[in-house]
Amino acid sequence: MTIPLRQVLVCQYRNCMARGAAELLDQWQARSVPENVQVEASGCLGQCNLGPSMQILPDQVWYCEVKPQHIEQIIEQHLRNNQPVSSLLNPRFHFDWSRLQES
Ligand code: FES
Predict the structure, then answer these.
(1) Pocket perturbation via mutation, ligand 1, pick of 9, 24, 53 by most ligand atoms within 8 A of CB
(2) Which atom of ligand 1 is nearest to the CA of 16?
(3) DSSP state letter for 3
(4) Which domains are seen in the chain, by residue range?
C-alpha cells in the first residue's frame, strides 16, 4: 500500500525570511519526519505579515508565526497523529468562532 505524500511548505520569501524562515527551514530539514512527508522551500504563500508561514498539503492546513521550537509539536501532533496544532493555525484560514463568543 502506498502512503499518500504530504508536503510541508516553508515560505522562503522576503517577509518570512526577515522573520527567521531560513533557520526554520534548516531546522525542519535537520529533523526526522515521517516517511510520507517532504519538507520543501516555497515562494510567497500570500501571508506575509503572519510569517514565517507554512502550509501542509494535501491537508490544507496553514500555520503562521512558526518558530523552530514549534517543529517537534507539529511533527508529533499533526504529522504523526493528524491533529493540527490549534495555537499555530493561521486565523485567516482557520477562524475559531468560539473565541468570538468568549469576548
Ligand atoms: S513572504 Fe512568506 S508568505 Fe509572503
Answers:
(1) 53
(2) 2
(3) P
(4) 6-102 (3.40.30.10)
